[in-house]
Every structure is written in structure tokens, then in C-alpha cells.
Design a protein that fits this description.
The complex is a heterodimer of chains A (about 290) and B (about 300). By secondary structure, chain A is an all-alpha fold. Chain A has helices at about 15-45, 50, 65-75, 80-110, 115-125, 130-145, 150-155, 160-175, 180-185, 190-200, 205-220, 220-225, 235-245, 250-280. In chain A, about 70% of the residues lie in helices and about 0% in strands. In chain A, helix 13 (about 235-245) runs antiparallel to helix 14 (about 250-280). Chain A is globular. Mean pLDDT of chain A is about 80; it is low at about 1-5 and about 280-288. Chain B is an all-alpha fold. Chain B starts with a helix and ends in a 6-residue tail after the last helix. Classes of the chains: A mainly alpha (about 290), B mainly alpha (about 300). Chains A and B meet through helix 1, helix 4, helix 5, helix 6 and helix 10 of A and helix 3, helix 5, helix 6, helix 7 and helix 10 of B.
Chain lengths: ~290, ~300
Amino acid sequence: MTSTGGLHWRPRGILQWIGAILVFLFIVAWAALSLLPMAWMFTSAFTPSSALVKMPPQVSVKNFSLANFKDLLKKAPLLPRWFLNTAFIASVATVANLIFDTLAGYAFAKMDFPGRDIIFWVILSTMMIPSQVTLVPMFLLVNKLGWYDSYAAILVPGMCQTFGIFMMKQFIQTLPADMEDAARVDGCSELGIWWRIILPLCKPGMAVLGISVFMGQWKSFLWPLIVLKTERKFLLEQGLTTLQQQFFTDYGVLMSGAAFAAIPMIIVFFFFQRYLIEGFTVGDVLKG
Amino acid sequence: MVDGLARIKQDPEPHKTNKVRSVLKLLYKKRWAYYFIAPATILFCIFTVIPVIRSFILAFQEFRLMGNVWVGLDNFKYVLTDPVFHKAMRNTALYTVIMVPQGVLKALVLASILRNLPEAMQTFFRGAYYLPGVASAVVISMVWKWIYDPNFGLFNLILGKFGFGPYPWLTSPKTSLTSIMLMGILTAPGYYIILYLAAMKKIPRELYEVADIDGATPFSKWWNVTLPLLKPTTLYITITSIIGSFQIFTSAYVMTQGGPGYSTMTVVYLIYNTAFRDFEFGLASAQAIVLAAIIVFISIFNFRAFSTDVQY
């Protein structure tokens, strides 16, 4: 045991080996079970609907076809539009959050000013309040501002997030102060320090924040469902549910729609897996 | 801040104007900090603070186009006696009571197993468990609705091969809520597994070496060293998953529309219906406040029960 530093358990003897193999099979089975719904989604998406509803369903490589996707675009001509809407909204929200969360995070982490702690704790404490409490007043506010059925209703309130401010504050706090001080002595403005020194050092934190804002916005459902009315303006998730209500038994088409919405997220996951998986420890709230 | 205040104190006869001037001077000196937090603070006031206050006001009013009318506690009285709200609350509470413990336990067990694997395998399994979580709740719910389809769904198909079923899953009020819960039970909590693994890595290895010297078995090391030191993470995961469970909406909306009957009606779904189908904004605010009160109360209770200062 001591050879592994006591951290890892290594099986010894035949009984322990059998136990270890069973445990390993258990986690493999769980992984398979977890991936099953997604696998079934893609299988169904690429198998013609007629083959899916046969008993038993004719699922095989031979039946691979893009018929469902063609059908989907015919039945839901707005789908590409919803896709672009969502991509646009998620991108703008990401950029806005990267700017405003780092600005506030920098001030809270490195600057000393009257009211800093009070303002910070008030902002942080509202994370406990469930968003449903503000749903109705937000809806009334958005109406009064004339933002109903417009993207302002989604973009403006989402320009910065408490979670992002907190995360960036935690991250910026760990940066050494030497470079800022040196820049200040050289007469660099505060905005210049933020842009030239803090932001470049923040890149790993910003990657994590950017990915989580982008994914969160991509998947958002309830708020767009409430504030967007015109079908052309819909976001993907909302659009998918209208498809489901229209073609509720045409699972081939529905699954190709679901796959269409999920693929960008899967791509983001594979490209940024490292940031996603490491990032969660940065945002670990209680470790504050 | 400190030198500014000190200057005010040292002033032997501080005239009011001087005081104001020195405060203003201090604020001016720190103006960049205020510029930096201004966007966040202004947005926060407009879109969080004011709506929260407005929500409390609305809860005591009846919404009318001509202007709201004060109704005192009527909304709360109605909510607390409304059988549909009771049903929604029971469903939501049952969902939380089942989903939270099994989710935390699953994450803990899977993370503890993964911890013993070589780094490369750990990365693979972390990815496999996390991947399904990148799809949105709408997508996941659509897929599961298909899996649960009584005629052509995957589950009845597989069970049929063994001579079981067909089961109605989502289409019977007796099994609909259970089916929604089963979907969560069969999904690995990828995000929580990652949190647990990260927390386990932070536990210093010396503690295990000391336990080795004492001749501890692997299980007793896990029970006596790992588990207690994971308490802050367990608290965090428990609270976030309670909050998440109480807010369940999308899966009910997509899979069952709250039915059949009210068998899968949840509190947030009811709030949504009350506000945006019936336009009873006052009543919806009262429902939301009752939900928020329950969530805050449980969170505080959890903090008390779990929080012991863990130092290592």
C-alpha cells in the first residue's frame, strides 16, 4: 500500500481482483447507460421514420439516411433561422459577460473603495433567490420597456451574471499585484491596466466563463419561452418544443431536430473539455 | 479608504462642508473602481433588486389592467388552500426527496471509484459521464419521451423481448412522475462527479499515509479520511441539487405538460401557468414567494446541519 502513497487502492489476491473487475464493469455499465439516450437520439435521427416504427425497428448501418433531416427542414423551414438566432444571442451574451464580469471582478478583487464589501455581498447573496421570484416582475418590466418579443429582453438582463463576477473575482485575486503596480507607476490608466494586464492574465478563467455562459445561453428555455412571441425570432430550444407539439409522433424528425440542437454543444464539449472539467473547481462557491 | 477616513478624523474642527468635500475627494480618487462595477451594479439593481421588491408587492395585489388592487393576504390564503398547488408541491417535494439523495450518493460512489483509476482512464470516464449533460433539458426530455413511447419506445421494446409490458410510462397518472424520476436516476451526475474528484485531489496525501501506518483498510480510509473532508463539497452539491430539483420545469413541460391530470404538475410549472396562461400575476408572485421561502429555509437548515469548519 505504501508504495502508492496510500492514495490508490490496488487489488491483491484473487478475491480482490474479482471485486475490482466487478467494480470496473459497474462503472463501464454506468457510462454506457449514460450515453445510451444520446446514442439512441443519433440512431433515430439517421434512421428513416418508417423503419423506426416497425416491430422490431429496422436499425442498422444499411438504413443510414439523411431523410429525417430533409424532412425536418421541409416541415420546419425556420429551424436554420432559430439556429442562427441562438448562435447570435449566445455569442453576444458571452462577449458581454466577458467584459462586464471581468471589469466588476477586477474592481472587487484588487481595488479598495468605500462600499466594496457591502455591494459584493449583496450581489452574491441574491444567488440564493430562485429566479422564479423575479419572473413576473421581469416580464412586466420588459413590457414597460417595450422589449417584449425582442432580443433586448434576453440580452440586456443577461449582460453580466453574479456567478461570473464571483468567479472572475476569485480568479483575479490569485494574480500577483507586481505588474499592475509597475504599470500604474508608468502612468497607465486603470482601464489600460484592465485591458493590457488583467485580461491577458485572465485567459484561463475567461475561457471557463465564456464556455459556461455560451452553453447556458444556448440551453436557456423558460425566459425565451415567455418573452418571444414571433416564430421567426424563436431560439432553438423553444422552437424544438413547438415542433414537438406539431409532430409529436414523428420521432425520426423530432430526433433529428434534437440532434441538430445538441451537436454544437457536443462540439464545444470536445474542443473545450479541458476548460470545462477544470473550470468547475474555479467556480466552487463554498470554497470562497 | 483608510487614509481618507483618517484625514477626516485628524481634522480638529471638521466643518460639514469639509467632510463632504473630503468624502467626495475620496470617491473621486476611487472613481475608476465605481466605473468598473457600474454596469454590473446598475444591471443588478434593475433586473434583480427591483424585481424582487416588486414581486413582494405584487403578491399582496390583484393584477388589473386599470391598476392593481391591494388584496392583503388573499393570494397567500388562496395558494395555501389551492388543491392544485398542494398537488404540485407534493410532486416537487417527492421529486426532491428521491432525486437529491440518490444523486449525491451516485456522484460520491462513482467519483470514489474513479479516484482509484489511472489518470487517462479517469479522464475518459469523466468525459463519458459528463457528455450527456451538455445536451439541454429540452433535448434530453425529447429523447426520453421517445424512449418511453408506449408503442415504439426503446424501453417497451427491450422489456417486450423478455415478455414484460407494454408499460404506459408517461401516459398513466400512476407512473408518469416515477418515469420522470427514473430518467434522472439512470443518468450519471457528471457535473457532481467532477466536483467530487476535484475535491478529492485536494486532500493531502499525508493523511492517507498516516492512516496506512495505523494499518487502516481501504474502506476505513475512505470512511474516516475521505468522507469527512468532502463535507464542504457534499454540502455544496446537496444545496445546489435541492435548489435545482425544486425548480424542475422543463422535463415536465416537454414530456407530459404536467399531466396526465396533475400527476406531473410541478411548482414552477404551476407558476408559469398561473402567470403566463391565466395572467394572474399577483397569485403567481405569491406562489413564487412560497417556493423561494421553502428553498431558502432548506438551504439554511442544510448549512446548519452540515457546516463544520473543515481545515486541512
